[in-house]
Specification:
Layout (H helix, E strand, L loop, with lengths): L5 H24 L3 E11 L6 E8 L3 E5 L11 H4 L2 E5 L2 H11 L2 H4 L4 E2 L8 E11 L2 E8 L13 H20 L1
């Protein structure tokens, strides 16, 4: 019985193509994370998960979570797979980096407690920045209660978080 030569010839081509795709993909995805902002709710909150507000890579690629409304979350796959991907412009990337490289951002405390405690929930916002060998991590509890409190938060941190929120809303609206 004669076997077909087509599968033998296709196998090296398929393996070569997959190697190329994996190689190019790893170059695209092997960018260091420059900025990551997450929010984790505790207590009576939705969603019951850490929310990736924005993760920005050096090349401008971003990831962020978008959860469905609470009423639609029961059987919605978006609840279990909330991550979205997009790309920022070079100007947006540079603006976020320059905000995080401000002296008052690097001299900020590592943790900011809540101005006033909530009764049944608490929101922990974490900012991680890493660029050119400089790293900073800041945790702010219930930050959005009063982000304008300049006596409490550094101006660059407030501006950075507001810019991240604006960019995120723009990315979500684009979909």
């Amino acid at each position: 019985m004669k076997r077909s030569l087509v599968p033998r010839r296709l196998l090296p081509i398929a393996v070569g193509f997959l190697t190329l795709v994996i190689g190019v993909g790893s170059l695209y995805f092997r960018n260091p994370v420059v900025l990551e902002v997450t929010t984790h709710g505790y207590g009576v909150v939705y969603p019951r998960a850490e929310i990736l507000t924005l993760r920005m890579y050096q090349n401008g690629r971003v990831e962020y979570d978008v959860y469905p409304p609470w009423e639609d979350s029961s059987f919605n796959l978006r609840y279990w797979f909330p991550m979205r991907h997009s790309k920022l412009t070079d100007a947006e990337v540079n603006e976020l980096i320059s905000l995080a490289e401000q002296p008052d951002f690097f001299s900020a405390r590592e943790k900011y407690d809540a101005g006033h405690p909530h009764i049944d929930d608490s929101w922990e916002t974490t900012i991680k920045f890493s660029h050119r060998g400089r790293e900073k991590k800041i945790v702010a509890i219930n930050f959005w209660d009063n982000p304008e409190d300049s006596s409490k938060y550094p101006a660059s941190m407030v501006t950075l978080l507001k810019k991240v929120r604006t960019l995120r809303e723009k990315l979500i609206a684009r979909r």
